[in-house]
Specification:
With 112 residues, the chain is α+β, with helices and mostly antiparallel strands. Helices cover 29% and strands 8% of the residues.
Length: 112
């Protein structure tokens, strides 16, 4: 025996699925961020961008735009929240960077 699906049930199911799919993506995204490998300063991209794991070790003479207040956690590319020890970075996809790190691509995070 075939069962007919009403238009109302179809729309209702679509709305429920539309609400659940982004929620599942957010949960998977936060779990994936926790599993990112740390960025190696010897990585070719990191080396080209002058990445250092600790902003206190930046050679200011070689990086004239560097200021002591600049660090990964205050950069627009940093994907972590305030207080995170490390998080993903839009520049170094698939890698995590320490909150106190720095690179030449640093850009001020917009005010919230």
């Amino acid at each position: 025996m075939q069962r007919k699906i009403s238009r109302r049930a179809l729309v209702k199911g679509g709305l429920i699925a539309g609400a659940l799919i982004p929620t599942m993506g957010l949960m998977a995204g936060s779990a994936a961020a926790a599993g990112l490998a740390p960025l190696d300063p010897k990585d070719p991209t990191a080396a080209a961008l002058g990445f250092v794991a600790d902003g206190k070790n930046v050679d200011a003479a070689a990086n004239p735009t560097f200021k002591p207040t600049q660090k990964c956690s205050t950069c627009a590319q940093y994907q972590g929240k305030a207080g995170d020890a490390s998080a993903g970075c839009n520049i170094f996809a698939g890698k995590s960077v320490p909150a106190g790190g720095w690179c030449k691509v640093w850009a001020q995070k917009p005010a919230a």
